[in-house]
Amino acid sequence: MNLESAKRELEEFIPHVRTMSDCSVRKMAGRDLTRFKEFKEQGIAVKFGRFSQKENDQLRKNIEDFLSVTAIDSAEKLLFTSRYPEEKESISRLKVQHGFCEKLSEGIPRPWRLIYYRARKMFDPHNYKGRYTEEEKEKLKKYHALHGNDWKKISEMMSRSNLSVAMKYSEIKSAVNYGPWSKEETQKLMHAVEEVFRRRLEREDANSLSSSNKSHRDLLIDREKLYQKLPWTEIEAKVGTRYWRQCKQKWSTILTNRMTKGQQLYMGIKGLQAKVNLIKRLYEMKVEDPNEVNWEELSSTIGDVPKAYVRAKFYKLKVTSVPFWQQKTFSEIVDYLYEEKLPELEKKL
């Protein structure tokens, strides 16, 4: 299949495929296109975002099955083969021989690359090693000065995961403020987000507008795109004084204030009604996993707000109302809220 045909066929499943590199498109056409078509025939859509518990369980099964067939003795050796130079050749041969790519993605309607990244995160023994010591932070700064953004190399030197060292460096590379946002910081955040949206719009309508018109046009953005996935580490770098997670939270607050015209939707009688509506809708959904909840749809139960706002309010509700919530499943938490907390809230209302 030539490159243009691959892009055309993948576009049905990956709308942003034309923004990807040619190399990535070719890999996706080889690894994913046939799978995507098979899922479509079964009425299953390709998914993005957080993995559900069901998908995590399927991924664990796929790894266990592959280890059983090949007699490779650990998931770490399978997914981090370069850590075992003496066995690298034999493990790589087994992976090719037994179709590692196909086996890893079996039953999971997502791009292979995302499945692979998820597996590496789940099975990396260095991924959950607790807080960084001051000594580790200094080492991280030193290694970054020597190797730049080669997170794979740095992760091996520090015995931490790629993601862990990359995010920790993002957090410590410069002085970070933790108090209220200044006017200057907020303006930097707004400009950084605007720049991202302008760049996206220019890619979308490159063929329909002249470059001179594009550079001066007003931003007209579908509201849903205002809180879709944004490149937060890039935005963090432009703000300069805030960690990326702070930028994300601040942007959600700005959107909420704009969309609600500054009304305090979660205060007083409105707050009680919002909690009642939220609990009822979650209970009616009968969902087992929070990743399967349509938080966008739920936003109307509180008011005209971003889904991040709804998730934050649900988190606060369960933490303050459900005893030992950490030990309960999502459905058990919702059942408790419905059976125990809802009557109390309705009485107050």
UniProtKB/TrEMBL annotation:
Q: What positions does the domain Myb-like occupy?
A: 124-172, 173-255
UniProt-recorded name of the protein: TTF1 factor
Q: Which GO terms describe its biological process?
A: termination of RNA polymerase I transcription
Entry GO CC: nucleolus
Annotated SUPFAM superfamilies: Homeodomain-like
List the residue ranges forming a coiled coil, or say none: none
Query: What span is annotated as the signal peptide, if there is one?
Result: none
Checking Pfam families in the record gives:
Myb_DNA-bind_6
Start and end of every HTH myb-type domain?
A: 124-161
GO MF terms listed in the record are: chromatin binding
Q: Which organism is it from?
A: Piaya cayana
InterPro entries per record:
Homeodomain-like_sf (IPR009057), Myb_dom (IPR017930), SANT/Myb (IPR001005), TTF1-like (IPR053078)
